[in-house]
Design goal:
The complex is a heterodimer of chains A (638) and B (169).
Chain A (H helix, E strand, L loop, with lengths): L7 E6 L5 E5 L1 H7 L3 H11 L13 E4 L14 E6 L6 E6 L3 H7 L4 E5 L6 E6 L2 E6 L10 H10 L5 E4 L2 H4 L7 E2 L5 E2 L4 H7 L2 E7 L4 E2 L3 H16 L4 H7 L2 H15 L11 H8 E5 L9 E6 L3 E5 L2 H5 L9 H14 L3 H16 L18 H12 L4 H6 L2 H8 L9 E2 L2 E2 L8 H9 L11 H12 L3 H7 L1 H11 L13 H18 L15 H12 L5 H21 L31 H15 L10 H6 L3 H6 L3
Helix pairs in contact in A: 2-23, 12-14, 13-14, 17-21, 21-23, 21-24, 22-23
Chain B lengths: L2 E5 L9 H11 L1 E2 L7 E7 L2 E7 L8 H5 L5 E2 L8 E2 L9 H5 L6 E2 L6 E2 L9 H5 L5 E5 L6 H13 L13
Antiparallel strand pairs in B: 1-9, 3-4, 5-6, 7-8
Classes of the chains: A alpha+beta (638), B alpha+beta (169).
Amino acid sequence: MAYLRAGKILRINLTDGNIRHEPIEPYITRFIGGKGVNLKLLFESVHKETKPFDPENLLLFGVGPLAGTSFPGSCRTDVTAKSPVTGALGNSGMGGYLGPELKYAGYDHLVIEGKAAKPVYISIRDEAVEIRDASDLWGLDTYETPFVIRKELRDMATKVVSIGPAGEKLVVYASINSGTGNVAARTGLGAVMGSKNLKAVAVRGTKGIEIAKPKEFLKGCGKLLDSIRQAKFYPDLHEYGLTRIHDREMRGLYDLLGNATEECKNICEADFLKKYLFNRVGCFACPVACFDSYDIPGAGAGTAKCSPYGDLSWDLRNPDLMIFWKSFVQCQRYGLDARSLSNAIAWLMELDEKGIITPEDTDGLKMEWGSPEVILSMAKKMSYREGIGDLLADGLPAAAEKIGRGAGEYLLISKGSPSDMHIVPLKTLMLGSAVSAIGEDAQVQPFIDGVTSRRFALIDDKTGFEEAITRYKDRAEKEVGIREAADPRATKGKAELVRQDEERADLADITGICTWMTSFVGLPVNADVLAEFMTWGLGTHVHTDMLISAGMRMHQLERAFNCNCGLTREDDRVSKAYYGRLKPGGQPMPEITATEFELEKMKDDYYELMGWNIKTGIPTRQTLESIDLKDIADKLRL
Amino acid sequence: MSRFISIEPSVCTGCQTCEVACSLFHFGECNPFRSAVHVIRREKGGLVTSLPLVCQQCSHAPCIEACPTEALFRVGKDSPLIIDEANCTACGNCVDACPAGCITLDEKTHIPLVCDLCGGDPQCVILCHSHCLTIGDDMGADNTYRIERLAALLDAEDLIMKRAPEGDR
């Protein structure tokens, strides 16, 4: 057995029931693991002609080399497929316990091919891999399904992920859920799973992951935990999950958007937590444990963190967190992405406000901002394709086309994927969303631009502003080599800031750790730390630069996959609604956002940085060959 | 016995780091199945309850009493449990004897996995982020209540044993 890895890729063909495995070894030097290897496997067999719901589409679960070890936050599973939301790459990472368990069962990757003739679920117990009948499970929600499967397999510790009614009904915003808060929510992977008639994956493993230098590795984990504990935000994170930080974040974001209602300004997630918390839970090996769980009579039970609190309150002008909670529990049970739901509802509310739709278009429901009736009914309508929900279930761009009357102008999307309604169109966030392979990706939020933009919006005296951002300019110079990058008014250096943040996320995704262990929330895991632990784990020296190159390789491969699906520079856009959205105090502030022209300029910089053709946005042969991707260049016929 | 690993059940987040640390220290691999501490986890209706189980170093240890070959013993009043692998017949009596089910057999060697406090510096305690596991010291007082308390907790929370009995899968 190879160190740090289970060693095998498990392939299950649901059409003919064929189960086979192959060594992961040929993939690891270039792609390390997790999302990196997933992308290579996807690129090899899914092409432009493959439609997301075709049996030929693959559904991949990939687990990186550090996952399943004692490394903090080593819990991630990347789920990848061609997406019904973007029509190109689909990828969503989930935490929890599935990934480590898959490795303990002996597999780093699970590749699901084909389509079952009737509903099935997959049971993996070490070498015993079965495709089992799921006729009785079809229609159950993602809380019930794991429970029934565990009873059937007579093992309460089996790790299960499943789809709910939304995935079964091919709702493009369907998610894959653990039933306890861990969700591969974005880009419609639950619908891909549903299209394969696959209800659930149940995994149990009893094998170990070998570590070359166990003593060093353990000692390193102890030291790392100490430094995590000393991080500024850690006490807040550990005690309040994300609630206190997210409270502040939402207030800060809405200061910039300038359209929060007075009632919403009184929302306090931390109060909600204090009042109703059932317990704090976390993912495998995680020292943060960011999940808050609640069991509220009459409102439902479940486990939540971060974004959904804001998605279903502030973003819909709903000041009542109990309404958020009820709606969120529905999303969890039905297996629906809460963020996409929030975006869809907000869109309908805006259309209603503008007089583009009337209650006649929406099953008699008045799509009024903040309406509890609307918020509480839409998750079910969408998941079960009832009435207006059916219209939304094939994706918002398709719905906009059917509604007509200019409804599409109000969509807040990129690459077809619904954005956070509270995304602030700062320069880096617009560029990041535009060039992301999956549409807006909340993992990429360059810190320096965020903080200096806020300063700019808040400081009236602009000479004071120059002084206030000096230290960020110093930092930008040190980190990306461009002082001006820290000036939120300049387009210069924004590509570098975006790439810096992408690199951070790439490294987490190929190694199998949670990005929250990184500077994302002020924690200390970075490329050097990862390389050090990879070295102890493998027993051979892993250089930081080697890891960084592998992250870049993964990023180029994402791009190559999308190019192979026909995407070009034209597709690196944000929707019209992004522009002019930034209005601190109700007044536009063009200095810190971007015009279409400025976005194009930043794209030029970004393409140059990435070695992509400026006109087409396609990686050049030279770029691909320089990072050992000649085979990909050949496949793209460059 | 004076020192033991104390468990505060209300703060366990279920992360299993204790299990991985134990197996890594003793066997050089990350494997919850080869750990002397194991986290019982139960999920229901969107909620998770978890509780780590580890030897409570009872002063009057039922496991020692149940061992037919005296393979399980202590070298002195303050010593943690020690297993003499050569004398162990893997009969599993100790597993059955523990009121809270803190002992399991290693699937590879069939030798009981018992907590030896890592020779003085328990790794699970070092890596437990939530202070659920800490080092306790009872100064040699009678302590059988500890294991009974754990057993009662398992009962009250309806926590099902992690490992299904052989043949019951």
